[in-house]
Amino acid sequence: MRILFLTLPLLAAVSCGSKDEHADEYVKLVKTAKAVAETPFVDEFFPGVIEEAEQTNLAFRVAGPIRKIHVKEGDKVKKGQLIAELDPRDYEVQKSAIEAQVRQLQSEYERIAELNARGSVSPNDYEKMRAGKERAEASLKNAVDQLNDTKLYAPFAGYIAKVAFKDGELVNRGVPIATLIDVASLKVEVNTPPSLFIHRDKIVSISCTQDQLPGETFPLTMRSFNQKANHNGLYTLYLDHAPSENSKLAPGMNVLVKVRLAVADSSIVRIPANAVFERNGESYVWTLQDSRVVSRKVETGARLKDGYLAVIKGLKPGDEVVTGGLHLLSENEKVRIAAPASKTNIGNLL
């Protein structure tokens, strides 16, 4: 019996020694990914108000009583559509009187011109007659223009925002009778600090949101920057918005404008989120150095799309990190990198 007890520990020792020797030869297979430079963005926000691209006060170029206003507030009008007209009676009478005068002068001019050709009239008399005829013709053209100006047309397509007169009221020339706005495109003006003006070449995108339209974002395009600061030391940024057919934005709405800037000199990188593990309340990754894993403390930022995480500090572009089995590894442990999966190596088994 004593021999048996001695034999069993010996066998156990031999067996354990064989297992440990096999364990030393085992190298873990790991998947890795490289840190990629991430162009970070800084978002700045400014309040703004949606405005129509163009607004025009429509007015007659002549005076008179209004015969008919053909639109009302809120109407959509086409370019060239009749907006209003004056009573043309006085201008028709004026035109007829001048037409009669022109006909008379034309007849007299033809007679004087014939006499001038024969040398029977002095050149001075002929020139006076010709000048008188031309003045009358100019007066007739003016009378025709004034008669045409008794009708007021839309200079562009848009909406009638305001009508200031009623049918039958007397209006003087140049007094606005209606306001026409163009909403085919909209604009926003925001006042920005000098820092944004200086780095305007780094603007990546501009958009806006409206409190009453949650979840919706509207793209804006930069038209120009005012090259001179206003009395508050701010630079005005002029923006345009091309509304869709069913756009809910309208002039007068308050919006929050977001200007996104690229920070080109930052060292932020992105790595798969599953490459980061926690130790004592701090974030770490396993990096590869000479086929061995070494832990490295990192400072993480925002989660990015597609399962990536921003790393603000601790890594540089090109660093290789382990992306799986992080808690099974130990410091300076030797590992082997798994080959990328392919159609002929499904599951990285080869």
Point out poorly predicted stretches: 1-23, 346-350
What would you say the CATH architecture of the largest domain is? Beta Barrel
Strand content: 35-45%
**How many structural domains?**
3
Explain how this protein is built.
The chain has three domains: 25-38 and 266-348, conserved putative lor/sdh protein from methanococcus maripaludis s2 fold, CATH 2.40.420.20; 44-53 and 183-262, Beta Barrel (Elongation Factor Tu (Ef-tu), domain 3); 88-149, Helix hairpin bin (Helix Hairpins). Helices cover 24% and strands 39% of the residues. The protein has helices at 2-25, 89-118, 123-148, 194-198, and strands at residues 28-30, 32-34, 36-37, 41-59, 64-69, 76-77, 82-86, 151-153, 158-163, 170-171, 176-192, 203-209, 218-225, 235-241, 254-262, 269-272, 276-279, 282-289, 292-297, 299-303, 308-313, 320-322, 335-337. A hairpin with a 2-residue loop joins strand 18 (282-289) and strand 19. The longest helix has 30 residues, at 89-118. The protein is elongated and about 130 Å long.
